[in-house]
Design a protein that fits this description.
Number of helices: 11
Structural class: alpha/beta
Number of strands: 8
Strand content: 5-15%
CATH architecture: 3-Layer(aba) Sandwich
Order of helices and strands: HEHEHEHHEHEHEHHEEHH
Bound molecules: iron/sulfur cluster, magnesium ion
Distance between the termini: 53 Å
Shape: globular
Strand order of the largest sheet: 2-1-3-4-6-5-7-8
CATH topology: Rossmann fold
Length: about 325
């Protein structure tokens, strides 16, 4: 287990996240769960803070999609529960009450659970020395299971039920998206932090394997399109991930033992407008707003290119959008 996967043919056939769920059609976080569990393999315990991947995964009706151990944690408790689970395995093995083996403890939480309410616990976990303790944040850019409320990773300009676009607030969400992966990279001695999305197919799975093998707690931030909250046809989930990368609205990178590198560089970047126009949550935006988003993406990208060239992290600073 845990070598890198070089082609689609090498993807393990066995699923550990299978039928028994009730997520929406085309659900990005659900697809990412499947890929994550395939990459991690059978010696895995999943922890699920409250979110779509808890509520919609069917535990209330005595069904479950998990073919490996899974347990629910309180919405903000993913960090503490992850540390506790890793500590328990270590103690049992050290006391000889369990055979020594590699066990993956993976906390799979949403942006609500890891970027907002559980951020302090996540940060705490990054300071421990547990190998194979991995936090994966499936970012659908809202509190989706409670009805699409804005989170700190909701992008500027998106309409949500907390930030409805209308006469008073024509933009919708007026806050800029928080970069949680950069926050995690700032932890001393961190060995592995990465961002990714559902495209290219093997990128996420190989980052999961690197993270599990890095010898310390690790963090992966995956952008997971949500047809319900983003208002697009469920058949286009993967295309949405592709577009996010091609328009440079989303940047895929990794930070491994202090070295930074971009892991996706669009050869011919597409205009941000293509990503915006494909989603109903941005349908209220005017041309000048989309121009503003293009400007921000362009300014941001210069930092990422510089980081890639230098192999180190430079904190990006982008002029905030004007008020309207
Ligand atoms: Fe998935 Fe979004 Fe539906 Fe939640 S609301 S189950 S994240 S598609
Ligand atoms: Mg969410």
């Amino acid at each position: 287990m845990n070598e890198s996967i070089k082609s689609i043919r090498e993807i393990p056939e066995v699923d550990y996240y299978t039928s028994g769920k009730r997520t929406c059609a085309g659900c990005g976080p659900s697809l990412a769960y499947r890929l994550l569990s395939k990459a991690a393999g059978p010696n895995t315990v999943f922890l699920g803070p409250t979110g779509c991947m808890y509520v919609a995964n069917g535990h209330q009706a005595l069904t479950s999609p998990y073919a490996v151990p899974w347990y629910h944690t309180q919405l903000g408790g993913g960090g503490g529960a992850g540390i506790g689970t890793a500590a328990a395995f270590r103690a049992l093995m050290e006391k000889g009450k369990r055979e020594k083996e590699d066990i993956n403890v993976i906390v799979y939480g949403g942006d609500g659970a890891l970027a907002d309410i559980g951020l302090s616990g996540l940060s705490m976990a990054m300071g421990y020395d547990y190998a194979r303790l991995l936090f994966v944040m499936n970012d659908n850019e809202s509190y989706a299971n409670t009805g699409i409320q804005a989170s700190s990773t909701t992008p500027w300009g998106a309409t949500t039920t907390f930030t409805p676009a209308g006469k008073v607030k024509p933009i919708g969400n007026e806050r800029m998206k928080k970069d949680v992966a950069l926050l995690m990279a700032a932890h001393p001695g961190i060995r592995y932090v990465a961002t990714t999305t559902l495209h290219p197919q093997l990128d996420f799975m190989n980052k999961v394997r690197k993270a599990l093998n890095c010898g310390a707690p690790a963090f992966i931030h995956i952008l997971t399109p949500c047809p319900k909250g983003w208002f697009f046809d469920p058949r286009y989930t993967i295309e949405m991930s592709q577009l996010a990368l091609q328009t440079r609205v989303w940047v895929s990178w990794e930070y491994e033992n202090g070295r930074f590198k971009l892991t996706y560089k669009p050869t011919k970047p597409k205009p941000v407008e293509e990503y915006i126009k494909a989603q109903g949550r941005f349908s209220h935006l005017k041309k000048e707003d989309i121009d503003e988003m293009q400007r921000m993406a362009d300014e941001d990208w210069k930092y990422w290119e510089e980081m890639d060239k230098e192999g180190r992290i430079i904190l990006p600073w982008v002029e905030p959008p004007r008020k309207r």
